[in-house]
User: Which sequence fits this backbone?
């Protein structure tokens, strides 16, 4: 063990700080990890292991047999430097602040605590995108909440493969967080860390916009995502997309962007991993408690005062991810309606583009740590114990309608009293932000409320809103004005076999007009009232008198079938379209 302060390495001011959490069975993977770790690496390593208060740890001596990296038992206020290992002492809790490790005595050394979560949270806040969280063998779920904080801050999460861990509980709990970037055996982790540390995209200012070359490989990657998921990530900020693609490249065996495009074409699992990384779908119950406190005390009472008991209150949670936010809103409205003795005349629409996230949200089953910000009274009232997890009660679940929906392309819900769309717009290009905001404005009633993320504003249409709460970006719609439509460039789509069969395509001549006329007559006789739409919900053909359901509305004409039906049919039709697409 070294008693000298760690010296600077290759990392400079931008070095990675790697927090490593381990518990039962954690010594062996730590030895394997550091035995394979090159020195110097330019990284700092902070090891947090559950230690018995009755025994002095010999971790420093045991690890020193496997590595030449200097090892330090942490003293209060020690500065973290690259090319050093720092070990938490027994009977202590530790955080990092201002690049220094700070210690506190545990009030009861024998009491249950979560030192890994505690440190990971502080690491996320202090190091941001320089933070790395590693979860190794251990019992319990310590670390599973902290990894979400590191992920939210833009850091990297690595987890030991459960089958290589002597105790699988901690790796499996981290896996259920859905934010782990890569699962590896301990001896494989140093290579991934080195690749990630050398990634130039990691050092890019996340708020800045760097030019992104429109290479053939990049176009191939975007096309694969469009074809598989129907989302055009060309509408997202180029630097954000590029950073997250380069992040995945650094975590795989691909040599460059071209190699990664080939990997994506051959690996549906990696394509899905990239897709989830691009969507950045992390949330939790009552995220930003102060924002929810404002909604509870100011927004909900005002809506109840404005909407008559006989009328339906309509709420839309856009980009709802795995559902924690929409159920948080449902709790606030349910409590207010119940306290006022009003009927539960409430409809909450929860939408997202990510089908897997919607499946989680619709099931409404969550790990105990997900309810950490939910008061005991609300836990008892709105959740039911389901084995080791908690299920949203049927009464609350029945208030929410989940649907797959793309806020860029799909028609908005209308006559809405409250819209929550938080931390989504910051990932879009300015013209897309303006279009989405215009659609949200259209969906709100006059005096309806819009809540954005703390880094988002109404931008160019700010004059159409009044500010209710500036810090948490809560606004109300001033007037019922139709804003100009904003057209986005349409990316070229691949022509599927079905589209060529129906509409003709390259290499295939269109059917003669007389045959098309015969098709129309046969379909008109045989088909029930039906609508044929394309993947963008644009109307292609009507059959069997279904045109009687359609209305041409004033203003700019739209081919989207959701814009052509009465508002009373829109929700049911959207659900049918999503079901048919699936």
Assistant:
């Amino acid at each position: 063990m070294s008693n000298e302060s760690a010296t600077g390495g290759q990392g400079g001011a931008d070095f990675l700080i790697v927090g490593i959490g381990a518990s039962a069975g954690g010594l062996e993977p730590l030895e394997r990890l550091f035995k394979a770790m090159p020195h110097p690496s330019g990284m700092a390593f902070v090891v947090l292991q559950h230690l018995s208060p009755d025994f002095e740890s010999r971790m420093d001596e045991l690890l020193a047999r496997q590595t030449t990296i200097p090892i330090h038992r942490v003293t209060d206020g020690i500065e973290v430097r690259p090319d050093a290992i720092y070990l938490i002492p027994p009977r202590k809790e530790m955080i990092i602040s201002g690049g220094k490790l700070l210690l506190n005595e545990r009030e009861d050394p024998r009491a249950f605590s979560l030192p890994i979560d505690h440190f990971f949270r502080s690491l996320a806040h202090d190091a941001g995108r320089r933070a790395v969280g590693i979860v190794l063998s251990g019992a319990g779920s310590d670390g599973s909440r902290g990894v979400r904080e590191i992920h939210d801050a833009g850091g990297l999460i690595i987890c030991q493969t459960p089958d290589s861990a002597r105790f699988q509980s901690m790796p499996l709990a981290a896996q259920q967080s859905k934010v782990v970037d890569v699962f590896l055996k301990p001896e494989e982790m140093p290579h991934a860390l080195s690749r990630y540390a050398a990634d130039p995209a990691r050092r890019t200012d996340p708020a800045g916009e760097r030019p992104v070359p429109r290479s053939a490989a990049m176009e191939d990657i975007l096309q694969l995502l469009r074809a598989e998921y129907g989302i055009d990530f060309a509408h997202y900020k180029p630097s954000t997309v590029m950073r997250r693609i380069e992040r995945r490249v650094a975590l795989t065996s691909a040599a460059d962007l071209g190699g990664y495009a080939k990997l994506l074409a051959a690996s549906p699992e990696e394509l899905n991993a990239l897709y989830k990384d691009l969507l950045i779908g992390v949330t939790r119950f009552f995220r930003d408690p102060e924002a929810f406190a404002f909604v509870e005390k100011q927004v909900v009472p005002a809506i109840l005062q404005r909407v008559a008991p006989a009328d339906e209150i309509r709420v839309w949670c856009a980009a709802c991810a795995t559902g924690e936010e929409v159920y948080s809103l449902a709790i606030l409205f349910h409590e207010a309606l119940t306290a006022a003795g009003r009927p539960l005349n409430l409809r909450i629409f929860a939408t997202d583009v990510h089908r897997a996230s919607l499946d989680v949200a619709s099931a409404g089953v969550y790990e105990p740590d997900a309810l950490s910000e939910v008061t005991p009274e609300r836990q008892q009232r709105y959740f039911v114990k389901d084995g080791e997890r908690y299920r949203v009660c049927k009464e609350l679940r029945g208030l929410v309608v989940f649907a797959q929906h793309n806020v860029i392309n799909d028609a908005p819900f209308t006559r809405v009293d409250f819209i929550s769309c938080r931390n989504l717009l910051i990932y879009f290009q300015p013209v897309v932000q303006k279009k989405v905001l215009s659609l949200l404005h259209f969906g709100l009633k006059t005096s309806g409320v819009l809540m954005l993320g703390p880094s988002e504003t109404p931008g160019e249409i700010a004059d159409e809103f009044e500010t209710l709460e500036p810090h948490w970006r809560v606004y109300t719609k001033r007037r019922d004005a139709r804003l100009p439509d904003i057209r986005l460039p349409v990316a070229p789509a691949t022509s599927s076999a079905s589209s060529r069969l129906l509409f003709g395509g390259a290499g295939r001549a269109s059917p003669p007009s007389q045959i098309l006329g015969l098709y129309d007559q046969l379909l008109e006789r045989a088909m029930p009232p039906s609508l044929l739409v394309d993947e963008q919900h644009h109307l292609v053909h009507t059959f069997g008198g279904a045109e009687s359901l359609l209305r041409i509305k004033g203003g700019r004409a739209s081919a989207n079938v959701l814009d052509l039906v009465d508002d009373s049919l829109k929700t049911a039709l959207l659900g049918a379209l999503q079901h048919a697409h699936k």
